[in-house]
Amino acid sequence: MKKLVLLLCCCLALTQIQTAAQETKLGAFVYPPFYVEQNGQIEGIAVEIITELFERLHLNWNLTMYPLKRALKYMETGKLDAIIILIKNPERAEYIDFTDPVITVRGLIWSAADRGAIEFAQLSDLSRYKLGVTLGYSYGPEFDQLVQSFPHVDPVNSDLLNFTKLLNNRIEAFPCNEIVAKSLFKQNPELQGKFTHAPNAFITWDLRIGISKKSPLVEKIETINSILTALHKEEVIEQLVKKYIE
């Protein structure tokens, strides 16, 4: 009897090890509304896309929240298989393969509604405004470089604080991802209808799935791209985004 129990325990342990080995290890980072951690659970647009995608891939997955720099390091070493919703750049492309875009999002210049939309033909036109930015964010290489020479730039810790400062006339303009901005307005009803934005985007970001070049998932990139095409054709991704911003 003892031998039988021991054998069953060994079989169970082996099954658990095999299951863990077969799980695709995904990294997340704080980026609402794409990734939000609440009560120990990771939620958001990206998580819902992961669920749809991996169900169609017939793969198990495990998602862990990390600081972005650490997640990228784990991608480089192969400790993580993939990060869903990632911007491609030359540095990352050295150790990450990227899918077709999952979501394309506009970077917009926001202002208080009672002030009116700020119009600009080129980024340097924004130098005459008192500009708010969020610490730790990149607004694209051109914007990041130009803003260093702007005379009136006020960095703070969050997008929400920048929108509050717009309302209080402490800044005149603020660059922000359209989806991020609209999700903030939905979460904070007191902000709804209080802002407008320039008609033209200062940048568009293609958010992709990044796959570690050391991961076996790389072999499935063509399949993943086909699934992404289907998800767009079925408007699955578009409907997921709407749920968080409308």
TrEMBL record:
Q: Where is the signal peptide?
A: 1-20
- Pfam families from the entry? SBP_bac_3 (PF00497)
Task: Using the record's annotation, list all stretches that form the Solute-binding protein family 3/N-terminal domain.
Answer: 25-246
Q: Any transmembrane segments, and where? A: none
Arranged from A to Z, the UniProt key words for this protein are: Signal
User: What InterPro entries would the database entry show?
Assistant: Solute-binding_3/MltF_N (IPR001638)
Chain segments annotated as coiled-coil in the UniProt record = none
Check the record and name the PANTHER family matching this protein: ABC TRANSPORTER SUBSTRATE-BINDING PROTEIN (PTHR35936:SF25), MEMBRANE-BOUND LYTIC MUREIN TRANSGLYCOSYLASE F (PTHR35936)
Name-wise, this protein is Extracellular solute-binding protein, family 3
The scientific name of the source species is Vecturithrix granuli
